[in-house]
Amino acid sequence: MTKKAVILYSGGLDSTTCLAIAKAEGYEPHAMSFAYGQRHQVELQLAKANARPMGAVEHLLVDFDLRKMGGSALTADIAVPKGGVGSDIPVTYVPARNTIFLSFALGWAEVLGAFDIFIGVNALDYSGYPDCRPEYIAAFEAMANLATRAGVEGTGRFTIHTPLIHLSKADIIKKGLSLGVDYSRTLSCYDPTPEGVACGLCDSCRLRLKGFSEAGVPDPVKYVNRER
């Protein structure tokens, strides 16, 4: 019997690869995306268009507005940094975002009778976000099994899967290509044009371009600027 899994799916490179991995491992992927007031709204268009073609059996879009709180270049009138990936937590960090996302995923998993949640966090080639670290994921998983009816009644144990967490961006791309992922149908940019063209200079674009360069394959998406 195929096991159901909830996949956090933004329409970007990492989450799309995560979806492909879950499907390859025999899970029935239920994709969940979020319209949270992010400036890169074009990613939602890609998510809605591509979730099922990429392998999801169902796609749920959750709508809420983190612009009411702000505090991030992705949800407030703060410029997205374009000067290169630094060592500090950047202003593109959205306060508590992965905790919010995983909480929604946990709720849907309970409804579906699923005990597996996939999230494409990465602790190697990333911008230093605190909610992408292995210790954070372990803590959330422990909480999930304390805070749910299914966990308390012992009908199953929730597992937060992070198949990309120790991979370089190049290795993520190679893995996705081996599974048939079409990266031309993904977007990673934090500050794309209204037409959906990636800027090429934000942290996310730089890390993506670096990954494709190191993987030895061309990035199939368009960029306003392509430094690598």
How many H/I helices?
A: 7
Name of the CATH architecture: 3-Layer(aba) Sandwich
Q: Regions with pLDDT < 50 over 5+ consecutive residues?
A: none
Number of domains: 1
The CATH topology assignment is Rossmann fold
- Give the name of the CATH superfamily: HUPs
Helical fraction? 25-40%
The strands making up the biggest β-sheet line up spatially as: 3-2-1-4-5
Global shape: globular
Distance between the termini: 45 Å
What structural category arises from helix and sheet content? alpha/beta
Descriptive account of the structure:
Helices cover 34% and strands 12% of the residues. It contains seven helices and five strands, in the order βαβαβαβααβαα. The protein is globular, with a radius of gyration of 17 Å. Strand 2 (27-35), helix 2 and strand 3 form a beta-alpha-beta unit. The chain has one domain: 3-Layer(aba) Sandwich (Rossmann fold), CATH 3.40.50.620.
Condensed summary:
Helices cover 34% and strands 12% of the residues.
